[in-house]
Amino acid sequence: MQAEGEVKKTVGLTGNMLKIIAIVAMTIDHLTWMGIETYEQAETPIQIILHVIGRLTAPIMIFFVAEGYHYTHDFRKYVLRMGILAIVSHFAFCFFNQSGFNPFNNLIFNATSIAWPLLWGLLLLKTWDSEKIKIWLKVIITIVACVLTFTSDWSCAAPLAILMIGRNHGNFYKQMLWLMSIVSLYAVAFFVINSQIYGIVHLACWFTVPLLRFYNGQRGKYRWLGKFFYLYYPVHLTLIGLLCRLIYP
């Protein structure tokens, strides 16, 4: 994942290391939701701490979708993989969330998984990098993307954050400024619409900034871990959903 002309860093965290951190944090977060039907049931101090740990995951996923766009050699294959992930993850997410597969009947911000807005973030990056598309049309496409992803997990915050991180590649300060500004707005929306406690918990995403600061720009030793990172998402949701039904029939 090193572009020509860039200086390789020998210290810091590789992309693989950060993805492992995201996997662990995500698993902890989702296991903590087992048997919980409302936000009010998940407001004990221990549960909140575990969900704070889980807030490390989404910013890392968002960041590496933008990184993947920058380094991919085949955008179409990348979009295809993300599209398949979005479809599979929708059913896994609803199964885990114990909600219907019809996204129009689900809770706001939880109608489908984060994979759907991640896909749109990738499409927005391609749209804004195209010199053939007029500015006004790019704006319309962006608005459409926000509407289509609004009720999904991480809402339109995810595609907008991917867009701004990708557009500011190479400038970590601007990347993080945009990422945390957008995440903070999402936290406010979550506070108003869904849950005050978890609106505040979403602000824990700021703890991801120091981790990403140590990213050394290298993939890491195991090339397969990149694909496993996204494959793990729907698989672990399905397994936790099964486990939940066994324990809480």
Describe the structure.
- This protein has 249 residues and is an all-alpha fold.
- Helices cover 66% and strands 0% of the residues.
- The longest helix has 23 residues, at 75-97.
- It is globular.
- 35% of the residues are buried.
Q: Structural class from helices and strands?
A: mainly alpha
What best-fitting shape do the alpha-carbon axes yield? globular
Return Rg in Å: 18 Å
The fraction of residues assigned to DSSP E strands is under 5%
Order of helices and strands: HHHHHHHHHHH
Distance linking N and C termini: 46 Å
**What are the low-pLDDT stretches, counting only 5+ consecutive residues below 50?**
1-7
Summarize the structure.
By secondary structure, the protein is mainly alpha-helical. 66% of the residues lie in helices and 0% in strands. It has helices at 15-32, 45-54, 57-71, 75-97, 115-129, 135-149, 157-167, 172-193, 196-201, 208-213, 225-247.
Features:
249 residues, mainly alpha, 11 helices
Layout of helices and strands:
Layout: H1 15-32, H2 45-54, H3 57-71, H4 75-97, H5 115-129, H6 135-149, H7 157-167, H8 172-193, H9 196-201, H10 208-213, H11 225-247
